[in-house]
Amino acid sequence: MRAKISYAVAAAVLVVYFVLAGSRGVLLIGSGTPLTVAFGLAVLILPVLGVWFLWKNTQFVRRANALAAELDAEGGLPVDELKRTPAGRIDRDSADEVFARRRAETEAAPEDWRNWFRLAVAYHDARDTPRARKAMQRAIALHDGRTIEV
After folding, report:
1. What φ, ψ does residue 146 adopt, rounded to 5°?
2. The pLDDT of residue 149
3. Is 150 helix (H, G, I), strand (E, B) or coil?
């Protein structure tokens, strides 16, 4: 729940920034001189890119959460079996061990979105966020029946 609140707050702050930046861009364009119009258009690019990124990221999070809910209903969510340091951080060797098992499961059944979901969690636990995201994107695509290029 804490992550959802943090995400909502960050998204709201970004939306406020996009509105402020967009309004400044419109004001610059409204000035009418070639230089301010050019700057105004440049300033408008940031909010447009930001809105697109926020939208795509929100879609990704919603789809990943929907897969997690479906997997939880099936009783297939990965169990947290990781060892932790006294400070509460995940032990690297423990994460690597779980990752190796998840990778083997995924290689054995690469068309099962559930395996890709669990592999994404293992990547995340091993602190490999880019690969975690790619594995989750693959899980989402497989769940939706879309083909994935390797």
Report:
1. -90, 150
2. 65
3. coil
